[in-house]
Structure formats: C-alpha cells, structure tokens
Amino acid sequence: MCLASQIHLKKYDVATASVISTQPTPDEALKRLVDGNEAFVADEPLPSDLSRERRLTLAEGQQPFATLVGCSDSRVGPEQLFGVGLGELFIVQAAGNNVDTAGMGSIEYSVAVLKVPLIVVLGHDKCGAVAAAADVVTKDTRFPGSIARMIEPIVPAAQRSVDEDKLVDTAVEKNVRRMVERLQKFSELMLIEPQGRGELKVVGAVYELATGRVRWL
C-alpha cells in the first residue's frame, strides 16, 4: 500500500475511532456465525434489537464483526440465517456472489478501516446466476445486455463442473472457492498482510435453501 493510501486510511481510522474498539479474533467471529446459523436451523428466536437506542448507537458509527460476500438472491438473508442484527455484518452482494471493482473496494474498506477480522464468501444451492453460467457451457445460451457480463466470471466454475452429476451445485461450490482464493492470494496488500498476521481470515460456505443450514468449506 502506498504512503498516500496509508495516510488517507489513517484519517478514516481517526474518524471511526469512537466506534472501533476491540474486535473478536477471526475464529471467535466465525464461531459466532456458526452458532447463529445453528440457532436459525433449530428455529430458535432470533435476536432483533431494532430499538431506538440501538439505532442511535449505530448512527454514531459501525463496528461489524464480519464481512459477508454473498448473492443477491432474495431467499438468502445474511442477518437472518446467521442470527445477527443491525450493524453486525458488512454485506457485499451481487448475483452469483461476484465481486467487481466496487465490491472489492467495499471489502477492502471493511478490513482497512472497520478492522473486520473475518470475510465469508457465501454461495447457495439453486443459484440462478450459476445456473445461467451452466446454460452457457452446456447449451451455448446467450444472455442479453449486462447479464452476460455478470455471469462471465462464473463460467469457468461451470466448465470445471460439467462432468458432475449435480452441475449447478458443484459449480456453486467451485465459484465460492474461486472467490476465496482470490481474496486469500491475489488481492491488495491491505487484505494479504492482515491474513499473514493472523488478524484476518477468509472462508467459504454454501447455504442450503431448504434446510437453512450453512455448510462451511
């Protein structure tokens, strides 16, 4: 990271210093998500502090404990399936859990400024974007406008899954692993360095729509 970038980020650190205190470790943050999903699967009441006091606190700033890179699918609500409330997850969503420049910048901001210790890349079964990529591979389907460009990064995952019995579900997992590897190895130093220090972890998972369960990869 260049010196100018470090200076600008330090300015943001000062601006959020009243909000950012001690974050959990990456493993503690992950356990919180695991426990929250288990409660969701068991139909236990979910925490929902939507009080005025909570809103006033969040108006002063945010301190999410994890960044969630997920799909735009309306059936996948990150706060609900992990049993968390307002201000606890920094969410970056796009169809097929794709990450463009704006998405990557959002992830980097969450780590460099908000000091998030955990990034979760979450795919889900029956993903329409991945199914579309599979149709490109198996049926030579053409999609109009920006849809084609949106699914383009997913096509390699579908190509590597074409001989599998469950092509779409296999491609979903491969697509998640692709994004995890990108964040672990081929990102800016502001993501690589905290991973090397043990301050940041990047993990992948797949959400099962029918069971509500998150399967960790």
- From the alpha-carbon coordinates, what is the Rg to the nearest angstrom? 18 Å
Please state the average pLDDT score. 91
* Text of the CATH class: Alpha Beta
- If you consult CATH, what is the topology? Beta-carbonic Anhydrase, Chain A
Oligomer: single chain
Number of strands: 5
**Percent of residues in helical segments?**
40-55%
Task: Kindly list the characteristics that best describe this protein.
single chain; 217 residues; 5 strands; 10 helices; Beta-carbonic Anhydrase, Chain A
Tell me what the structure shows:
There is one protein chain. With 217 residues, the protein is an alpha/beta fold. It has one domain (3-216): Carbonic anhydrase (Beta-carbonic Anhydrase, Chain A, 3-Layer(aba) Sandwich), CATH 3.40.1050.10. It contains ten helices and five strands; from the N terminus they run αααβαβαβαααααββ. The protein has a five-stranded mixed beta sheet, with helices on both faces. A hairpin with a 6-residue loop joins strand 4 (201-207) and strand 5.
